[in-house]
Amino acid sequence: MKTNGIFSFARAMFFAAIVATQGSAGTTDATEPSVLEVTGGQLLDQPVSLGVQDLRDIAVRNIVTSTIWTEGVHEFSGVPLYELLQHLDVTGSTIEAIALNDYSVFIPISDAREGGPIVAFAIDGQPIPRREKGPLWIIYPFDQSPEFRTETVYSRSIWQLNRLNIIE
């Protein structure tokens, strides 16, 4: 009898699990995956995680430019770096930009200005695939001014970006 009772209980739990998961499978309310974590500055020990839609909701700007890593001119879409920092209300002297492979570069906060770089999430209207330097890539308007066509600025154009650490 006890074996039969255990079997009935297990069967009931199995069907309950199926019913419970059916309601959540394939829903459109699922949270968007985080693509960028921002730490440091006034954020203290509370990092902010953002998805692409979060970045879009802050602001979207397009930069039409060529790069030394791509052929031809492309339209990059993303959130201006200065608007991202303003939105998060963080200040500092330097931004440490870190890629998925833990490669990092340091960007002076003075670069985060109107007409400066964007955190690009799309190229020619399409999400940037990881294999093509995505999902996020810091893009400067290289073709707009010689000041953006230097080895120093090129080195700050980190791709596969996934973290920003604001340094006081």
UniProtKB/TrEMBL annotation:
Pfam families: Oxidored_molyb (PF00174). Keywords: Signal. Gene3D superfamilies: Oxidoreductase, molybdopterin-binding domain (3.90.420.10). Residues 67-141 form the Oxidoreductase molybdopterin-binding domain. Residues 1-25 form the signal peptide. InterPro entries: OxRdtase_Mopterin-bd_dom, OxRdtase_Mopterin-bd_sf. This is Oxidoreductase. It comes from Parasedimentitalea huanghaiensis.
